[in-house]
Amino acid sequence: MKKLGEKLLKKKFIMSFISIFFVILLILLGISLAFKNSSSNNITLNVYNWGEYIADGTDGTLNVNEEFTKQTGIRINYSTFQSNEALYAKMQSGGTKYDVIIPSDYMISKMINQGMLRELNYNNIPNFSFIDDTFKNSNYDPENKYSVPYTFGTVGIFYNKKMVQENEDSISFNILWDKKYTGKILMFDNPRDAFAIAQIRLGLSVNSDNVNDWYRSAEELKKQKPLVQSYVMDQIFDKMGNNEAAIAPYYSGDAPLLMKRNPDIGFVIPKDGTTKFVDAMCIPKDSEHPEAAEAYINFMCRPDIAIENIKYIGYSSPESIVKENLDPEVKNSKICYPDEETLNNAQTFTSLTNEINSLIDDLWVSVKTDGDNNNPFALVLVILMFVLLYLLAVIYQKKKS
Amino acid sequence: MKLKPSAIYIIWMTLFTLIPMALVLYFAFTNPMGKFTLDNIINVGRYSSIFLKSIWLGALSTIICLLIGYPLAYMISKVNTKYQNIMVMLIMLPMWMNFLLRTYAWMTILENNGIINNILSSIGIAPLSLINTSGAVVLGMVYNFLPYMILPIYSIIVKIDKKIIEAAQDLGAGKRKVFSKILLPLSIPGIISGITMVFVPAVSTFIISKMLGGGSNILIGDLIEMQFLGNSYNPHLGSAISLVLMILILISIGIMNRFDRSSINEDYMSHH
Amino acid sequence: MKILSKIYVGVIFLFLYAPLVVLVVFSFNESKSRNTWTGFSLKWYEKLLSDTEILHALVNTLIIAAVSAIIATIIGTMAAIGITKMKKWPKKVVMNVNKLPMVNPEIVTGVSLMLLFVFAYNSIGILRPGLVTLILSHTTFCLPYVVLSVLPKLRQMNPHLYEAAQDLGCHPFKAFVKVVLPDIMPGIITGMTMAFTLSLDDFVISYFTSGTTQTLPIAIYSMTRRIVSPEINALSTILFVVVLLLLLVINFRQINELKDKKS
């Protein structure tokens, strides 16, 4: 009798468990479907952008994507990448259906060469006329068929005034190799920007087609590695903002935001030269909604939107009308809108040959794993050891039985 | 012909487990033109230090998990049955929080201006550099995978017949002897599945090292991710690295299974 | 000795819960800082609830978890029934294949599925990475767990019961529903809950097979790589409280039932 009762109880428990589980499941499904339906009657654009590269409503700014949806009814599925190379990998690994991407100059020319981008219909982008002429027909897109500039900027050095004694004028990329700051230095976590710093230090071209130049810069980066706290991208906001690190090279456009967050932070564009970049909006070849994507690009160029956007992200705008409408201290700042001399001194990345590109990939991994003994036989030895252990285990077992 | 109930399953597993594995194999032995090549496999050798480091850190955290986890599993099995369930639940509970978030929380604790160092400096001790070291990576692994060690060991120990232990004690066996002659040998199946369940994810992790290791402690997982979605796109090399990793892990599971044939097979699940 | 072991258990639990406490406490912090307390505020919770990006990711995650748990449970249960009837050799082969997704490192599973979907998309134009491929891959890594939790229950069952029901004139399907199903139900439920939770928490495999679709773990990952906002902490606190409540409800029922049994 007791057993039967137990069984019944167990059954009752199980049944109630099932019902709870299913009810929850159904509710969840219901909510999700309702959520989906509310937005399924129109197009969704997949926008793939750099991290921290759009006004998203933080601190009372305009939420650009939401505004676009409000005005057009087109929903935005917004996601972010960390580097041009990561964007390229994600596109190459196939099957992704992005409608708007924002790569930098050299990556745009690489993508054009590989037929990954779609020719834009500029009739749908009337606001392209607001872009300054100096940013049109640039060498990465000579006939300006594929891209609409989004922002531009240079690379400079962020430093924490409380931890760095040097005065601003004497700071150059050499400080990234200064042993005094061991463990306090952050470094770019993407090969092109990291190599560029070493190349500028060595007085080389950042677009060198000489294999030896790349080996030499890799050696420099290996020398630097013991001093580096970590290789990061947008995490510098976190690490510099929280006084975790003292020095970090990064993009000029992030200076206003970071300096606002942490007043101890300074930014300097090195006198001995640096790199400059233009990031531009493009549409991948396999976009499913090119017209909507063009509408989005047009929207981003619209001066009133661009002003709000630039005010938040802090990068420099290729539209004079936008620049004119910024606060005087931003507009006249040498950080965001550097003088001719600095710009002329800065190098631009161009697309490299496939051989150089794969060499960079190899060298980059070798930089990041430097300091360890990289003997290929070590791996073979390990595998052999594993196999040997396995055989020993078999023998042990045989003996036991 | 009558369709067997397992037909869909067999088709499913072929499509989504066997064919993908075959694709990894195919990619590992071809170049971008689709021609056969051994270059990828040979090139894996260049990253042997990463393999060694991953295996070393993985093994280290597995051993630490075992040393911490075994006594705990044993203690849980000793308490009142009513509290046992609660304690097991308390161990599983943190696993319900997304592991990225938990690892991220460790960043806050270990940082130079983090909680530990703040406490240390408030009592006048010089700050330690904790984050961005291999030690932090091991800590992250131990933290994330410790429950996988405790639970299988616990579920074995709790099944051991108390009478056997009592009998041994009656026959005059001391505590140490009871442990080494009875408890330990009987709990080996749990230890084995614990070791595999910790070692496999620890060796192949790619987030923990990124978050706590400071980007210069890269492990096999990071290397594979770099080849597929990271800074150096090369799925062929990535597949070759995955293949070598898979072989290493299959061999180590083979070794483990030799010591106890019942681990990771259907019997393991029935312990739950 | 007793006290020592209590301290030991206490230290381990401190270790397990310290990060969670940190996350929860700083979700109520006023400023953005991750390590300095500036005052109590609920603003990160408000922000979170108006963050459509995260809410959409949450919805995707729930859809994927629910659908793949259901599919995996149905296919897995049928598979388990088939496997018990198999001969020795086919059974061994199937059981070994079943182990593969469990013992394979997650990253290798993710990468291999990514290769499959990309191959399928590039050659036949189907299975473009997105919601569908996420469901397919989640079902794949959940299936073995369902099979393994149903199998032991089937083995414990008395095989003659099913035959007896049929002998007594019961339709095979009805016999299955009336006789077999109730007996293996606990196994099915374990499998389904396991599948559901595994899918909810999965990051690595989703990361490689998601295409442009965002799930919660993927959104969290990209959040940890940008300016980190305490919204993350708020989100984890909410998730944690929900899970805690669910588990408490279930556990209280169990304890009550234990008490009922004893009395």
Q: How much of the polypeptide of chain C forms β-strand, as a percent range? A: under 5%
Q: Quote the average pLDDT of chain B.
A: 87
The quaternary state of the protein chains shown equals heterotrimer
Tell me the domain tally of chain B.
Answer: 2
Q: From the alpha carbons, calculate the radius of gyration of chain B and give it in angstroms.
A: 22 Å
Unreliable spans of chain C are: none
Distance between the termini of chain C: 34 Å
Helix content of chain C: over 70%
- Largest interface pair: B-C, 81 and 82 residues
What is the CA-CA span between the terminal residues of chain B? 38 Å
Number of helices of chain C: 11
The dominant shape of chain C is globular
Provide the helix percentage of chain B: over 70%
Major sheet details of chain C:
none
Global structural class of chain C: mainly alpha
Report the CATH C-level class of the largest domain in chain B.
Mainly Alpha
Overall spatial form of chain B? globular
CATH topology-level name of the domain at 54-225 in chain C: MetI-like fold
Unreliable stretches of chain B, pLDDT < 50, 5 or more residues?
262-272
Q: Number of DSSP helices of chain B? A: 14
Order of helices and strands of chain C: HHHHHHHHHHH
